[in-house]
């Protein structure tokens, strides 16, 4: 037992000496991961941090290349492979230079045979082990566990993959999100691929349905990682009172934007995290809802992400139970939801209740703020329709 404890303490020591890993996660090429990574690199440099570019792929994008200006760039290592001279990150040079922060693009990249490591994520692990903090980028389809899912949903076999455990070890994950329509527009403008590749890309990987599926995978993965880290945090670090904020979304909510803006302001006043949660019923799958509803939902999730919400999507029939389960799991104290339309009289005769009415009856100890979708918020940004504060029994 004492040997096990000694080994555990040694692991703690090594962990404390290890660099921190930050991942900019996206659902496809062109959403802006590399751009955001370089922006952060520039901000850190302005704060006096020693930042070095280990390797960045601009893919010919002028606005991305411009962000490298002023940053120290380590020359790439040239490797001769089958008569062709190829370039990779010079790991030895990076370790010798030992900057505070290294910017390393495309975490799932496969290195040229003859490199120090077979995969770039292994290079990153070496940098972290040396105490160098790393900021990197990753597309969701490169996770090993999603290989079959991505092939089934999108029809693409992803050859460059990395273990899920690499992402799980990240100290911070940032979801770089962009509405699928905007991503397609960037593609048409030649900002992702060359003009001659645009038409083929739009007919294949960049189809709207594919992008929506990949985007949902990214949202789910981020939510899963947050949940994993929350569960691994000691209970005493969670605090005592549940005071996070949760905004409930629907595919056809008439004022989802108002709900999100109110949730953002409320979370800001409480200085707490906030979540945007969409429960997808079986009748609302991407193949079942019309294009306008799908577009509206996509715009709503984009706004939620822009306003700083952590976006969760669930599939289920019982919306109320799903909402309350989430609220208790994530220590939510305030639930923000839109007021539904009136139930038909015959449903009332059968004793049916709206989702909001059921929620208020069951939300013991939680504050339920019901916002009138027909009224634009004024003042504090809310029109309260009998907010329910139910004390836990």
Q: Would you write up a description of this structure?
A:
This protein is 41% helix and 18% strand. The chain is α/β, with parallel strands linked by helices and 393 residues long. Helix 3 links the parallel strand 2 and strand 3. It starts with a helix and ends with a strand. A six-stranded parallel beta sheet has the order 3-2-6-7-1-8, with helices on both faces.
Weakly predicted, low-confidence segments: 235-240, 376-393
Mean pLDDT score: 84
State the major sheet. Answer: 6 strands, parallel
Gyration radius, to the nearest Å? 24 Å
Query: What is the count of β-strands?
Result: 14
Q: Give the helix proportion (percent range).
A: 40-55%
Oligomer: single chain
Report the span from N to C terminus: 44 Å
Strand content: 15-25%
Give the ordered list of helices and strands. Answer: HEHEHEEEHEHEHHEHHHEHEHEHEHHEE
Q: What would the principal axes of the Cα set say about the shape? A: globular
The strand order across the widest sheet is 3-2-6-7-1-8
| Count of helical regions | 15
| Secondary-structure content class | alpha/beta
């Amino acid at each position: 037992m004492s040997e096990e404890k000694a080994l555990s303490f040694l692991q703690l020591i090594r962990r404390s000496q290890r660099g921190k890993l930050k991942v900019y996660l996206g659902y496809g090429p062109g959403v802006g991961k590399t751009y955001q990574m370089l922006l952060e690199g520039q901000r850190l440099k302005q704060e006096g941090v020693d930042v070095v570019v280990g390797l960045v792929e601009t893919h010919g994008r002028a606005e991305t290349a411009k962000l490298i200006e002023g940053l120290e760039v380590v020359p790439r290592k040239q490797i001769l492979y089958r008569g062709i001279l190829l370039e990779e990150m010079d790991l030895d040079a990076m370790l010798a230079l030992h900057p505070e922060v290294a910017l390393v693009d495309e975490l799932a990249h496969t290195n040229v045979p003859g490199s120090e490591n077979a995969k770039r994520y292994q290079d990153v692990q070496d940098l972290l082990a040396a105490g160098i903090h790393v900021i990197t980028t990753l597309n969701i389809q490169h996770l090993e566990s999603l290989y079959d899912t991505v092939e089934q949903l999108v029809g693409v076999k992803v050859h460059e993959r990395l273990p899920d455990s690499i992402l799980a070890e990240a100290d911070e994950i940032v979801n770089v999100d962009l509405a699928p329509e905007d991503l397609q527009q960037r593609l048409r403008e030649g900002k992702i691929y060359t003009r001659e590749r645009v038409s083929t890309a739009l007919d294949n990987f960049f189809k709207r349905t594919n992008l929506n599926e990949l985007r949902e995978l990214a949202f789910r993965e981020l939510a899963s990682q947050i949940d994993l880290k929350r569960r691994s945090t000691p209970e005493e670090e969670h605090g005592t009172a549940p005071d996070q904020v949760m905004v409930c979304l629907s595919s056809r909510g008439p004022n989802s934007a108002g709900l999100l803006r109110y949730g953002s302001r409320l979370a800001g006043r409480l200085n707490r995290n906030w979540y945007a949660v969409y429960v997808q019923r079986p009748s609302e799958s991407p193949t079942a809802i019309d294009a306008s509803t799908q577009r509206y939902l996509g715009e709503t999730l984009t706004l939620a992400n822009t306003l700083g919400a952590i976006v969760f999507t669930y599939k289920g029939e019982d919306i109320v139970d799903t909402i309350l389960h989430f609220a208790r799991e994530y220590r939510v104290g305030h639930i923000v939801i839109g007021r539904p339309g009136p139930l038909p009289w015959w449903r009332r005769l059968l004793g049916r209740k709206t989702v909001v009415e059921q929620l208020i009856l069951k939300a013991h100890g939680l504050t339920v703020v019901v916002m009138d979708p027909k009224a634009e918020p004024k003042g504090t940004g809310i029109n309260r329709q009998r907010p329910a504060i139910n004390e836990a029994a």
